[in-house]
Specification:
β1 (87-88) and β2 (93-94) form a beta hairpin. Helix content is 51%, strand content 3%. It has a two-stranded antiparallel ribbon with strand order 1-2. The chain is mainly alpha-helical. It has two domains: 2-32; 39-136, Lysozyme (Orthogonal Bundle). The chain has helices at 9-31, 34-40, 47-50, 59-70, 98-105, 110-114, 117-129, and strands at 87-88, 93-94. The two termini are 42 Å apart. α5 crosses α7. It is built from seven helices and two strands; from the N terminus they run ααααββααα.
Length: 142
C-alpha cells in the first residue's frame, strides 16, 4: 500500500474499512436463507398439481424446469420454431408433439390445449414416461 502513497494513519483507516466491509459482506451472506434462491428459481405454486402427474422426487425438478422454461407462466408461448410450431405453456411443450397432445388431452387445437395447465402436465407426464427428463435438456442457456 505504501507504493500507492498510502501510509501511516491513512493506511490504518483503510485496513479498518476493509475489515468492516468484509464483516458486512459475511453478515449479509449468512443472513440470506439458503432456500431463498431455490424458491426463486422454481414454481412452488404449481408443485401440488405437478405431484398428481410425476413421482414425488421428480416434482422439484419439474418445478425448476417450469421456471426455466416459462418463468411459471402457463400461458407462455415461444416464437415459432424451425418446425413451424412454438413451444407452449408451463413446461414449454413443443407444438410438434401434436399427435401426442391430441391423444392425451383429447383436444384438436394443440396450442390451445397445451396452454391449459392440466393438458401441459399430461403431455409432460407422457414425455417423462417415454424418455425421462431428456426432453428438457438445459440447452437454452437461460
Amino acid at each position: 500500500m505504501r507504493s500507492l502513497g498510502i501510509h501511516g494513519g491513512r493506511l490504518q483507516k483503510l485496513r479498518e474499512l476493509i475489515k468492516k466491509l468484509m464483516a458486512l459482506t459475511l453478515i449479509l451472506a449468512l443472513s440470506t436463507p439458503a432456500h431463498a434462491d431455490a424458491a426463486a428459481l422454481s414454481c412452488p405454486k404449481w408443485e401440488p398439481l405437478m405431484a398428481e402427474y410425476f413421482p414425488k422426487k421428480v416434482v422439484p425438478v419439474m418445478s425448476k424446469i417450469a421456471y426455466r422454461e416459462s418463468r411459471c407462466n402457463p400461458k407462455s408461448l415461444s416464437a415459432v420454431r424451425a418446425n413451424g410450431r412454438p413451444d407452449v405453456g408451463l413446461l414449454q411443450i413443443q407444438g410438434s408433439w401434436a399427435t401426442v397432445t391430441r391423444a392425451v388431452c383429447k383436444k384438436q387445437d394443440v396450442i390451445k390445449a397445451l396452454l391449459t395447465v392440466r393438458c401441459n402436465l399430461k403431455v409432460a407426464q407422457y414425455l417423462y414416461r417415454n424418455g425421462g427428463l431428456g426432453h428438457w435438456r438445459a440447452t437454452s442457456g437461460k
